[in-house]
Amino acid sequence: MFITFEGIEGCGKTTQVQRLEKLLSDHDIQVLFTLEPGGTGIGTNIRRILLDTENKKIVPLTELLLYEADRAQHIEEMIKPALNEGKWVVCDRFFDATVAYQGSARGQDMKLIRFLNEKVTQGIRPDLTFLLDCPVHTGLKRALMRNLSVHDEGQDRFEKEKEQFHHKVREGYLALARQNKKRFKVIDATRSVDEMALDISDHMMPFIRSHLKNAK
Ligand SMILES: Nc1ncnc2c1ncn2[C@@H]1O[C@H](COP(=O)(O)OP(=O)(O)OP(=O)(O)O)[C@@H](O)[C@H]1O
Ligand SMILES: [Mg+2]
User: Fold this and answer.
1) 142 lines ligand 1 (CB under 6 A)
2) Which of 7, 17, 81, 89 is paired with 139 by a 20 to 30 Å CA distance?
3) Quick one: which atom of ligand 1 is closest to the CA of 192?
């Protein structure tokens, strides 16, 4: 089973991925937890270029191609082998992020994005996508608080984007959820970490039960 987490900056993806990690390990399910960009060694280098605030000169097409290059490597090196071994894969952002950020927000050619996504993923698609949805100011405030508390380098290139950019990302994600109703589960991310985790766990339990039954 392939599960992805999506949503604007600071909505709580990484926090909920960690909660899911606990839930799945409690049920002894073998899972690869990974992220984009940066799920491989090469991807870590690509991530650095993408998030570095010094890289003001990156043109939109370079940005798009770097994300797709990261994904091509990630699929071949990590995701495909894990799925082939029968493991579950949980990924913190995946190809929907490129549609929302580079497509809906940056206004790049959607046809090109969909073509590249299809090509680099070799047709591998998530079975389930959790979209953690909250207003832009809620997400950005959380991200800002986190950056202050962990004393990292501060905001990355995307967190520095104007509020309007993040509104477009949110709308892009919600449009994707409407177009892919079966795959998407929209989670109200204005709630507490525990409430969100419970909602996600409720949604996961039938899949976990069916997996454990088949494994017997
Ligand atoms: N439901 C919540 N309510 C309040 N604070 C939260 C909630 N979920 C996460 N946080 C806090 O908000 C901050 C951002 O959360 P997290 O890093 O999980 O978001 P993210 O979606 O992974 O962000 P990014 O897009 O930057 O990777 C963290 O400090 C986290 O502890
Ligand atoms: Mg995160």
Assistant:
1) yes
2) 89
3) 1
Render pLDDT for 105-115 as a digit per residue (tens, 0 to 9).
Answer: 999 999 999 99
Nearest Cα neighbor of 51 from 160, 164, 213, 189 is 160
Strand, helix or coil for residue 48: helix
The structural domains of the chain, with segments of one domain joined by +, span 2-215
**Band of pLDDT at residue 160, cut at 50, 70 and 90:** confident
Q: Which CATH superfamily is domain 2-215 in?
A: P-loop containing nucleotide triphosphate hydrolases (3.40.50.300)
Q: At 56, list the tokens.
A: 């003001």
Alpha helices by DSSP H, listed for 2-135, are 13-26, 41-51, 60-74, 80-84, 95-98, 110-121
The residue whose C-alpha atom lies closest to atom 15 belonging to ligand 1 is: 12
Q: Does residue 192 line the site of ligand 1, with CB under 6 A?
A: yes
Place of tokens 């949805």: 133
* Ligand 1 atom closest to Cα of residue 18: 18
Q: Which of 4, 9, 14 to mutate to test the pocket of ligand 1 (most atoms within 8 A of CB)?
A: 14
Rounded Cα gap, residues 20 and 26, in angstroms: 10
